[in-house]
Design a protein that fits this description.
It is built from 5 helices and 4 strands, in the order E-E-H-E-E-H-H-H-H. With about 140 residues, the chain is of the alpha+beta class. The strands form 2 sheets. A two-stranded antiparallel ribbon has the order 1-2. Strand 1 (about 15-20) and strand 2 (about 20-25) form a beta hairpin. The chain is globular.
Length: about 140
């Protein structure tokens, strides 16, 4: 296993999350018993062994907070992948790609922020599967 990244920006997606617009490391647990009972009992919370980098247990949430019902994208390359991963929840890329009618590799590229000529077309198909519409917020007076 590779040495863990020293900066959240360099860590694999499974080892980092976005809080208040900046990337931070996700919390690491050595066993399921270390995860607070409140989180273990929450139906929208799941945990997984990180096989990408650190080997620890990370906690994931399938719900979006109240303040995230309308989400402003500050940096499309960072915010879009984070949103797509949260929306996918526990479904596999293969499952979502099949329903969207795209190849799983295209979904992976969207989630990892990679560029591809079919990116916008794939994004439209995937957002329809998630029942999400993309919008923009413009300053008043424009």
């Amino acid at each position: 296993m590779a040495a863990p990244a020293s900066r959240p920006e360099d860590a694999p997606r499974g080892c980092r999350t976005q809080r208040e617009g900046t990337w931070v490391f996700t919390r690491r647990y050595r066993s399921e018993q270390e995860i607070p009972a409140k989180l273990r009992e929450d139906a929208s919370t799941s945990w997984y062994w990180c096989e990408e980098s650190c080997g620890a247990i990370h906690v994931g949430h399938t719900r979006m907070g109240e303040r995230e019902k309308f989400r402003m994208f500050e940096d499309l390359t960072a915010d879009l992948p984070d949103l797509l991963i949260k929306l996918r929840g526990q479904a596999t890329r293969k499952q979502v790609a099949e329903v969207a009618g795209v190849r799983p590799i295209r979904l992976k590229e969207l989630e990892e922020g990679l560029k591809h000529p079919e990116g916008l077309e794939t994004l439209g198909k995937v957002l329809r599967v998630y029942r999400v519409r993309l919008g923009v917020a413009t300053p008043t007076g424009r």
